[in-house]
Amino acid sequence: MTDRRRVKRMMGAWIALGAAAIVLGYGTFRAKNLVEGPRIAINSPISGEAATSSIIEIRGTAENISFLTLDDGQIFTDSSGRFDEKVLLSSGYNVVTLKARDRFGRIVEKTLQLTYN
Questions:
Q1: pLDDT tens column, 19-47
Q2: Each residue's pLDDT tens digit, 57-104
Q3: Closest C-alpha among 15, 108, 86, 95 to residue 49
């Protein structure tokens, strides 16, 4: 085998190896969301907070979800996963529950405990 053929064969092997590494890396990057499951982050209000008004706005983000509920009523996110919902509090102690489900049936739940006087 000549040196020229050996160099071509080595170059082909390195190109194939590089392409395989790129495909594997991209697949791992995209699969991260599937592995992590649904996530909810509530930005405001903070759990345990005392509300000064009977109507509060619950703001946050939800990622990797297919369905989101606030006290068992469906709510929706914008294209970047943000939600903003108003809730009417009763006098005294209140518990507000957010649940998110992904397309594989995995569920995550966040609970806010608020008081209104």
A1: 999 999 898 887 777 778 899 999 999 99
A2: 999 999 999 999 999 999 999 999 999 999 999 999 999 999 999 988
A3: 95
In the chain, what is the straight-line distance between the N-terminal and C-terminal CA atoms, in Å? Answer: 88
Does residue 45 have a cis peptide bond before it, meaning omega lies within 30 degrees of 0? yes
Tally of CA atoms within 13 A in the half-sphere of 85 that contains its CB: 22
Phi, psi of 103 (to 5 degrees): -70, -10
Residues 32, 8: Cα–Cα separation, whole Å: 36
- SS3 assignment for 15-81: HHHHHHHHHHHHHHHHHHHHHHCCEEEEEECCCCCEECCCEEEEEEEEECCCEEEECCEECCCCCCC
d(CA 71, CA 106): 18
Picking from 78, 72, 35, 38, the residue whose alpha carbon sits closest to that of residue 59 is 78
Please give the model's pTM, rounded to 2 decimal places. 0.70
